Amino acid sequence: MLKAVRISFFLLMLLLAVMTLAGSMAASSSPQIYILHVDDAIVPAVAGYIDRGITQAEENQASAVIIELSTPGGLLSTTEEIVDRILEAKVPVVVYVNRWAGSAGTFITLASHVAAMAPASRIGAASPVSIDDSDDSLSDTMKRKLTEDTAARIRSLADLRGRNLKAAEATVIEALSFTDQEALGLAPLTKDHQKLLELDTPYLDPPLVDLGAEDLDSLIAQLNGMVVEIGGVEITIVTDGYSKTDFGMSTVEKFLQAISDPNIAYILLSLAVTGIILEFVNPGSILPGVVGAISLILAFYSLAVLEASWAGVFFIILAFVMFILEAFVTSFGMLTIGGVASLVMGSIILFGGGPELFSLDINWWVIAAVVFIVVAVFVFVIGAIIRTHRRRPQTGKEGLVGKVASAHTVLDPTGMVLVEGELWTATSEAGRIEVGEEVTVTKVEGLKLKVSKKQTGG
User: Fold this and answer.
1) CATH code: domain of residue 408
2) Which residues face 134 on adjacent strands?
3) Is 235 within a domain?
4) Domains in the chain: how many in total?
5) Cα-Cα-Cα-Cα dihedral of 100, 102, 107, 108, to 10°?
6) Is 201 found in the same domain as 59?
7) Within this chain, do residues 209 and 314 fall inside the same structural domain, yes or no?
8) Is 83 in the same domain as 188?
9) Quick check: helix, strand or coil at residue 151?
10) What is the phi-psi region of residue 332: left when phi exceeds 0, alpha when psi lies from -120 to 50, beta otherwise?
11) Are residue 386 and residue 403 in the same domain, yes or no?
12) Residue-wise pLDDT tens digits, 177-194
């Protein structure tokens, strides 16, 4: 009986082990879909995030990577980096436009193996902002070169993925945008768009994107069985029984993306200079120096990422120099006016000098707020500190100068005087002084005072 029980227990344990192994094998064989979320401008932190997500998906042999995208645009160099990473990916990369694929987002979408759009989303307007006709900082030849190079890049991506070349090129040359239905070839284009694209039909054929999907689950279902080419080899995407891996940004990546914003960079630079100057003007206050130093490091990162104009940085620094000089020089407000003008000018030209794929500028209300706060700090706070340092000391031995004392003994010429409730040895500078006479302290020499008779009357 005992032997039968042992055999039954052994068979039960063996059955459980087999079931566990079978379950783990089934789980490991289920298709894994990595979901990445890009919301906001395309900056280096986003490129690092996408590279990290694709790399992990490759290591885990995922069926596909889906980048849920909504962006107004981004830096041209960062966009190129992301596009190259997608082209080199060893797993299918799907871009799902949820709301907006402006400018840089258009390049990223067209580089993907599968391009999809959500209802009411849009794509396009991929012209580099610095080649706008209103920008006089570039010659006509340079503008033409930038236009042609950017257009050639987007044509090559459209051609590689079998998408509409004319429509892709028009997003750069004419800054055209398309709705999801237009990009899918399901809705007619406007007559102006048809004319610009020189189309015989009001519909895009081939379309600019591949799929339309209500949500991610609908998209994943449509991906099942699609064939894409990776490294010259055709791969079939399998999503039956899939499991999703939501691959989010790290805390550091989120922070770096947040400070890679023109408004934040501008505020950090202003805060850095203000804090450092406060520390120099009032040594030992510590907090302004610490805040200023940290803000300066972060500002340098943001300015480098956003390729800020050095002319703008110098104008801003010049403004702070003028504000400091105002506290030392009687300029009747001219230095303050010059500082405000320099700060505003530097703020306007700080960003937007390069051929980027979105508008790099600072909101006017941010500029107004920073100018107001900086001027107030320098006029009232730093001015008060400087005036305090320049004022005659009012405490300690030096603070006795100018005080009124009374003779405790006869000063002929040396004796004792009572000042501020304390007895001091004092020497009269002019003549004999009787007991009880009032004198004025004129000088402090060690532990002795120099006094003179108090002047009376007008």
Assistant:
1) 2.40.50.140
2) none
3) yes
4) 3
5) -40
6) yes
7) no
8) yes
9) helix
10) left
11) no
12) 999 999 999 999 999 899
pTM exceeds 0.70, yes or no: yes
* 117, part of any domain: yes
* pLDDT tens readout for residues 251-285: 999 999 999 888 998 899 889 888 887 777 777 77
Domain stop point among 390, 408, 430: 390
On whether both 412 and 439 belong to a single domain, the answer is yes
Chain-centre distance for alpha carbon 401 = 54
pLDDT tens string 343-388: 889 888 887 655 555 566 788 888 888 888 888 877 777 666 666 6
- Is 103 in the active site? yes
* pLDDT at res. 28: 47
How many angstroms separate the CA atoms of 46 and 340, rounded? 35
User: Is residue 134 over pLDDT 70?
Assistant: no
The reply to whether 283 and 331 lie within a common domain is yes
Report the 10 Å Cβ neighbour count for 205.
9
Residue 4 has pLDDT above 60, yes or no: no
Handedness of CA 259, 265, 271, 276 (dihedral sign): positive
Nearest CA to 110 out of 148, 52, 155, 57 is that of: 155
Task: Please enumerate in sequence order all residues whose Cβ is within 8 A of that of 442, keeping only pairs 6 or more positions apart, or say none.
Answer: 401, 429, 450, 451, 452
> How far, in Å, CA of 191 to CA of 205, rounded?
16
pLDDT of 442 higher than 90: no
- Are 202 and 329 part of one and the same domain? no
Q: How far is CA 152 from CA 92, 104, 146, 156, 171, in A?
A: 24, 15, 10, 6, 12
CA distance 420 to 436: 15
> Domain containing 411: what range?
398-453
Let me know whether 236 and 110 are in one domain.
yes
> 189 near 199, Cβ under 8 Å?
yes
pLDDT digits (tens, 9 = 90+) for 307-331: 788 888 899 889 888 877 776 777 7
Q: Which of 30, 77, 145, 359 is catalytic?
A: 145
**Which tens digits make up the pLDDT trace of 374-430?**
888 777 776 666 666 555 555 556 667 878 888 889 888 899 988 877 888 899 887
Q: Which of 63, 70, 103, 260 is catalytic?
A: 103
Residue type, 379: V
Q: Across the chain, which distance is largest between two alpha carbons, in Å?
A: 130
Mean pLDDT, the chain, whole residue set: 84
377 domain-assigned: yes
